[in-house]
Write a structure and sequence with these properties.
Elements lengths: L1 E2 L9 H8 L1 H4 L5 H4 L5 H10 L2 E5 L5 E10 L2 E9 L8 H15 L4 E7 L6 H5 L4 E2 L7 H12 L7 E7 L4 H4 L1
Parallel strand pairs: 4-5
Antiparallel strand pairs: 1-2, 2-3, 3-4, 5-7, 6-7
Bound molecules: coenzyme A.
Coenzyme A binds next to strand 4 and helix 5.
């Protein structure tokens, strides 16, 4: 199930992010694990603004989450994480769709994200869900800055890209 998080669940979400990122060490990107997860403050702000969702287990405990940012007139999937043993069940796709639907409800037809190009569960995963790469010259200004910040935190920029999905063409409705 995908739902809004409760306040007492927020401190668990950085742990989920750290644990989910363990996958990167297995594909030669251990630096991703060293990077700081989303802060409790930004997650709490996201909860209050209705920009944060959790995927839950049968016991109604969070096993994944998505955080959206709205900056510079664009909507951005800032973080998406699902715990290892809950992956492959469609939670990632459902969290993306909930994020895109909320963005659309707030007037943002396009959802952006930054990700790794050749990691199986990153760019190829998003491409199978309707995202396309944005040519570098067409990156929105707000996200060029965001991308630079991410790179300064240790993400190797040459292995990364920005992708977008336009939902005004009815991507969500067609599914
Ligand atoms: C990216 C991520 C959120 C996807 O979450 P998820 O819940 O596994 O997503 P889904 O179940 O919707 O889709 C997973 C895909 O892996 C496949 N899969 C099958 N078995 C799987 C398994 N045991 N484990 C993982 N994936 C499996 C699914 O069939 C699906 O394939 P498809 O893309 O061809 O449809 C998750 O892999 C993750 O947390 N990764 C680490 C953090 C990360 O990379 N975040 C994104 C940063 S840009």
């Amino acid at each position: 199930m995908i739902r809004a998080p409760r306040a007492h669940e927020i401190p668990f979400l950085p742990q989920i992010e750290n644990a989910a990122d363990g996958r990167y060490a297995r594909v030669g990107l251990p630096r991703v694990i060293d990077m700081p997860p989303a802060t409790v403050a930004s997650l709490e702000q996201g909860r209050r603004d209705g920009r944060l969702w959790v995927a839950t287990s049968l016991l109604n405990r969070p096993v994944g989450f998505a955080l959206m940012q709205l900056r510079g007139g664009t909507a951005w999937l800032d973080q998406l994480s699902v715990l290892d043993r809950w992956q492959g069940l469609g939670f990632g796709a459902a969290l993306i769709d909930r994020t895109a639907a909320t963005a659309r409800g707030r007037g943002f037809d396009t959802l952006y994200l930054s990700t790794y190009l050749r990691v199986r569960w990153n760019a190829p995963f998003y491409a199978r869900r309707g995202f396309v790469e944005v040519p570098r010259g067409k990156w929105p200004r707000a996200f060029r800055l965001q991308f630079m910040t991410e790179n300064s935190h240790g993400h190797p920029s040459w292995q990364r890209t920005i992708m977008k999905r336009d939902d005004q063409n009815g991507y969500l409705q067609r599914r």
